[in-house]
């Protein structure tokens, strides 16, 4: 599913559709592909429609994080005093400068009226999506 998601992005880039937010529809196995795409390229997604996805037991699990890394994710503050502070914080979670700059251009990281900056990107939410949705081992994983 991850490789197919990357292929979809490549096809969009070749059609000059990259850079415009898209609504992605996935049915059955295509739903997992759509979810993988959204996890890999959240800046591309305006909406996600998932239809008839089967959650069967799987043998793989998302690698658990250590206590320190999980605490760091939970402590992530999405409000910043400056663009530079937002950039540095997001880079510290492994996001590339070019990707973050694109989020700024797309309005996912933006300056508020009071001069502070806000990140629509939340590393904890992305980790939880990978753990509980993309790496689900069954329906009970959906229980909060």
Automatic annotation (TrEMBL):
Gene3D superfamilies: alpha/beta hydrolase. Pfam families: Abhydrolase_6 (PF12697). Coiled coil: none annotated. InterPro entries: AB_hydrolase_1, AB_hydrolase_fold. This is AB hydrolase-1 domain-containing protein. It comes from the Eukaryota. Residues 2-129 form the AB hydrolase-1 domain.
